[in-house]
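Bench log. Compound arrived from synthesis this morning; before running ITC I wanted a structural hypothesis for how zinc ion sits in the protein. Inputs:
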Amino acid sequence: MLKTGKAAILNQPNGEFIIDEAELPDPKEGEILVKQEMCGVCGTDVHMYQGHLPGTAFPIVLGHEPVGIIAKLGKGVKVDHTGEPVKEGDRIYVVPGLRCGKCYFCTVLFEPTLCVNSTAYGFRPYSDQPPHFQGGYAEYIYMNHPYSTFLKMHVPPEIAVLLEPLTVGIHQMDMAKLRVGDTAVIQGCGAIGLFTLVAAKEAGAHKTIVVGAPKSRLDLAKEFGADLTINIEEVTDPKERIEMVKSETTLDYGADVVFECTGFPKAVPEGIDMLRRGGSYLVAGHFTDVGDVPLNPFLHFTNKQINLMGVWGDDIGH
Ligand SMILES: [Zn+2]
Ligand SMILES: [Zn+2]
């Protein structure tokens, strides 16, 4: 008898996770069967659970931050995507994003996160097939999508599992073109905010300011090296928060770069007001549509001559 594995299948938006068992597939040429160790729970999983991510096919196995051990390698799989040799028993990070490498965005523009054929593990890449081993909330992931990529891990699973949110921070640094000595503000202290802080420090930010709540998260931000934290539950007036940030910058001009990692539209005008003229504002916290916010084209954009950038997820290059 073939071995089986379990998966937590979400039956519908706001529905139930049903634990179902299915036969394990035998990986064919180029494919991998991964015995999962851990998978992160992302804010996006919550949005998907609530049915707020358009195009999500149900039933689905959520989870796009998976780490596991190679249970079986299909024929021809010998190295990971940095060229490092792999064998059964090795720990790998399954890169969730699946990019075609052939479309206009992948090839001409070098913007794989915008791939027109993009899908991902944890997002039901094969919506016409059983969902069991296509996401992280299962005992196994069956890496049978032709665009699959993965990296061998040399750290414990509880560290490796943090790689996906970290790569969102790294993607932001790529776009922000942060300069050594910059003052960077990070709005939000969830996983994306904290890893953006880590990435900003690695990229050369001289002063880092994290604006968010609750206190326990801000304490973590301090542990990760934030120079200043502003608790929005204590400093409730956005104007006061803006002044606090500005007073920490060169000649009170404002921050060089502000990273939005909150998912709250109201953070956007506040964050732009924290910027100096000519600064860069990156919006990475909005992975779903949570509504509009009033902005002033003269005050926020033209007169201030800011660089405004959206950041959509991450890719293996990050
Ligand atoms: Zn995520
Ligand atoms: Zn593509």
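What the model suggests: The longest strand covers residues 275-283. The chain has a mean pLDDT of 96.
ITC booked for Thursday regardless.
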